[in-house]
């Protein structure tokens, strides 16, 4: 507020009226000033929260009033950028630590009336929803963002759409994105992601003679990748190529980001019954096929605890009908491949009784990627342990899996669901 200077020359009565008028002006100016300051005050970001895992995240940021928001995507690395009016960030540093799909969170003032929030992802992602909402208690507003792991193709399509809409992306309908994969991508080759179980600090099971599961699974996965690559018809990726710890949801994320037509998770367990031996093929199911399958799923699902990074599963019911239908179709494909795989393995390696089983394995829960978990054998059995260390045996088993993939891929391509 500026300082007004008045001069007056006149009689006492006129002076009294003049000074009264000036006093009234000053009072009004003083009362109006705070309102003007409040309107010009920075937006206040009062809290920030993230929840989810490496496949799907929700981000919520609260403000003292409704924010004018613009958001867009950047690659190299993959980022979500949210531009705001000048904002004072009163956020707990613990709440912005990396978790799940989000690799880092940065925020600050850019000057010229703009502040920015930047979320860097572990890879390509999709924005399923971006909403500005009034808080239910009437105090302030929030932005709520749902993002999920996606393929490079999907991210690039969103970037192209962004360019057409002059820099501000439009939130896609969730049902329009889930399940866009090989069907809508004519250039897509049948893609297999091989997941060597365990790794890094999580060694997995240990054999009678000291064999460590994480080494067995990596050696076998490398052999299987080489055989699939030799066929020349597939794109083949591994979730890990070294002795590296990976969260279970990161393994699922990698499969989804590669638009995998098939995820094969490789394991080699131990069991108290020393005489039990042979390979087993598992698919996902909320209800285990037998107590042994449930016990195995419970052990494998604890892998994340080795690095103190466990995220609890919310076990929320699926409410989106399209997603539910995609899950059912994916499960049907998983069961079909498991049956084919058991048939091929039975001609080359030993199988346990009832070799096709199911349980609630977290690593098999991608809603749009057919997935199986293969237990190659039991390290608790001396004969199985010796086989798992044999290059000849690994070659036979890898060839059987390759044959099963060829049959499965041919059926998918014939049905128009793969390239």
Instruction: Tell me about the largest β-sheet.
Output: 6 strands, mixed
Number of continuous helical runs = 9
Low-confidence stretches: 1-9, 20-24, 26-38, 166-184, 309-319
CATH fold-level assignment of the largest domain: Aminopeptidase
> What's the CATH H-level homologous superfamily of the largest domain?
Zn-dependent exopeptidases
Residue share in β-strands:
25-35%
CATH architecture of the largest domain: 3-Layer(aba) Sandwich
How do the strands of the widest beta sheet line up side by side?
A: 11-10-12-15-13-14
SSE string: HEEEEEEEEEHHEHEHEEHHEEHH
Number of strands: 15
What value does the average pLDDT take? 83
**The CATH C-level class name of the largest domain:** Alpha Beta
Tertiary shape: elongated
- What number of structural domains do the residues give? 3
Distance between the termini: 70 Å
Helix/strand class: alpha/beta
Q: Which bin fits the share of residues in helices?
A: 25-40%
Round the Cα radius of gyration to an integer and report it.
Answer: 30 Å
Catalytic activity: Hydrolyzes the link between N-acetylmuramoyl residues and L-amino acid residues in certain cell-wall glycopeptides
Domain MurNAc-LAA: 252-406
Signal peptide: 1-38
EC number: 3.5.1.28
Quick recap:
This is N-acetylmuramoyl-L-alanine amidase. The chain has 419 residues and is an alpha/beta fold. The protein is 34% helix and 26% strand.
């Amino acid at each position: 507020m500026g300082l007004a200077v008045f001069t007056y020359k006149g009689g006492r009565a006129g002076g009294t009226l003049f000074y009264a008028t000036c006093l009234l002006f000053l009072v009004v100016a003083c009362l109006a000033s705070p309102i003007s300051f409040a309107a010009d005050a920075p937006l206040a970001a009062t809290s920030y929260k993230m929840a989810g895992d490496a496949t799907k995240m929700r981000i919520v940021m609260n403000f003292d009033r409704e924010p004018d928001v613009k958001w867009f995507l950047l690659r190299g690395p993959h980022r979500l950028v949210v531009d705001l009016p000048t904002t004072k960030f009163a956020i707990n540093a613990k709440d912005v630590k990396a978790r799940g799909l989000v690799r880092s969170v940065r925020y600050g003032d850019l000057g010229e009336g703009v502040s920015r929030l930047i979320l860097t992802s572990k890879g390509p992602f999709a924005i399923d929803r971006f909403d500005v909402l009034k808080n239910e208690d009437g105090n302030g507003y929030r932005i709520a963002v749902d993002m999920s792991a996606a393929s490079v193709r999907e991210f690039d399509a969103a970037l192209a759409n962004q360019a057409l809409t002059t820099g501000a992306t439009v939130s896609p309908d969730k049902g329009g994105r889930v399940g866009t994969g090989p069907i809508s991508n004519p250039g897509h080759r049948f893609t297999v992601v091989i997941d060597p179980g365990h790794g890094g600090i999580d060694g997995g099971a240990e054999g009678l003679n000291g064999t460590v599961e994480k080494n067995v699974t990596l050696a076998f996965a490398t052999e299987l990748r080489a055989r699939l690559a030799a066929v020349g018809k597939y794109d083949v990726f591994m979730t890990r190529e070294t002795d590296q710890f990976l969260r279970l949801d990161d393994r699922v994320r990698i499969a989804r980001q590669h638009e995998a037509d098939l995820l094969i998770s490789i394991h080699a367990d131990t069991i108290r019954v020393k005489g039990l031996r042979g390979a087993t093929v598992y698919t996902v199911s909320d209800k285990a096929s037998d107590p042994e399958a449930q016990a195995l799923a419970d052990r494998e699902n604890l892998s994340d605890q080795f690095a103190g990074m466990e995220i609890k599963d919310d076990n929320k019911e699926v409410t989106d009908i399209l997603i539910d239908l995609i899950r059912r179709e994916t499960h049907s494909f998983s069961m079909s491949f498991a049956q084919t795989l058991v048939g091929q393995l039975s001609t080359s390696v030993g199988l346990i009784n009832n070799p096709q089983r199911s349980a609630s394995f977290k690593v098999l829960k991608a809603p749009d990627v057919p997935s199986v978990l293969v237990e190659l054998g039991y390290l608790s059995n001396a004969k199985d342990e010796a086989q798992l260390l044999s290059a000849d045996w690994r070659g036979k088993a890898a060839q059987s899996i390759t044959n099963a993939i060829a049959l499965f891929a041919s059926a998918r391509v014939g049905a128009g669901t793969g390239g």
